């Protein structure tokens, strides 16, 4: 459950977008998203669909540099407030991005903002961009949210890699995630083997799959662990349990809040 196959990521972009569209169907698109308070539900949807189109353009053109948003056709979303037009626009953007990713394959060289410059990065990133923002939409629309265990686990793995990259790149918040020999253990109670040990070393943090004692433990169903880790669920929620030094968990969450 560390990395999913490239084709699976492509499939998930479509499946997660379909699930997002189902969440939006019949919802009040003018409500504020609690976990992204600068956005309404419609603006959240436009953000996700715009990201799909932006990545599709990067992949389709094999861009060697960042593509400005004003160079991406249709990124601003459909005109007017018709929910049907928004739904069709979301579906089209995801389908076009996936078509570009499938045509390119996982190893095509393209610009990314991160540690690898391959299309495989974007397939994974767009999967989890959609997974997490679908959770935002579900919270705003007040509907249930579930995600499969392999995808939820990989969302955690990808976020760990992003925070590690930010630390390596000198991000001031991520740079503080070190020192003291402390550790954080994530323990999914419903999926065997879905456990992570995050250790705070002198210079940086590291992580691995392990079941070991730690300074603080976050326990609960895997989906809920993923939501807490992505700051979409408060660690005081009764669906999860925090054992040990809760301030260390808060320390992690506060310093991995960028992006």
TrEMBL record:
Entry keyword annotation includes Repeat: no
Q: Where are the transmembrane segments?
A: none
Top-level taxon of the source organism: Bacteria
Taxonomic lineage of this organism?
Bacteria, Bacillati, Actinomycetota, Actinomycetes, Kitasatosporales
Q: Which residues form the Mycothiol-dependent maleylpyruvate isomerase metal-binding domain?
A: 11-138
Annotated ranges, domain MDMPI C-terminal: 150-250
UniProt-recorded name of the protein: Maleylpyruvate isomerase family mycothiol-dependent enzyme
One term of GO molecular function: isomerase activity
Q: Which Pfam families does this entry report, sorted A to Z?
A: MDMPI_C (PF07398), MDMPI_N (PF11716)
Q: Which UniProt keywords apply?
A: Isomerase
Q: Which organism is it from?
A: Streptomyces durocortorensis
Q: Which regions form coiled coils?
A: none
């Amino acid at each position: 459950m560390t990395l999913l196959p490239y084709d699976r990521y492509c499939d998930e972009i479509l499946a997660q977008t379909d699930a997002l569209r189902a969440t939006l169907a019949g919802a009040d698109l003018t409500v504020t998203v609690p976990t992204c308070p600068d956005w309404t539900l419609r603006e959240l949807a436009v953000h996700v669909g715009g990201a799909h189109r932006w990545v599709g353009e990067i992949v389709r053109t094999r861009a060697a540099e960042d593509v400005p948003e004003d160079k991406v056709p249709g990124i601003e979303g459909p005109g007017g407030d018709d929910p049907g037009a928004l739904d069709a626009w979301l579906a089209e953007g995801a389908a076009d991005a996936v078509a570009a990713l499938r045509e390119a394959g996982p190893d095509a060289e393209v610009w990314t903002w991160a540690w690898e410059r391959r299309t495989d990065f974007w397939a994974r990133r767009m999967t989890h961009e959609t997974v997490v923002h679908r959770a935002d939409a579900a919270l705003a629309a007040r509907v249930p949210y579930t995600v499969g265990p392999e995808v939820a686990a990989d969302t955690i793995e990808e976020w760990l890699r992003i925070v590690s990259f930010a630390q390596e790149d000198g991000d001031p918040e991520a740079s503080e995630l070190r020192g003291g020999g402390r550790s954080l253990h994530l323990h999914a109670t419903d999926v065997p083997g879905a456990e992570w040990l995050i250790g705070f070393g002198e210079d940086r943090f590291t992580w691995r799959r392990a079941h070991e004692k730690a300074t603080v433990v976050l326990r609960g169903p895997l989906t809920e662990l993923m939501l807490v880790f992505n700051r979409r669920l408060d660690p005081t929620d009764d669906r999860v349990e925090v054992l040990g030094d809760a301030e260390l968990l808060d320390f992690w969450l506060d310093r991995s809040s960028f992006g």
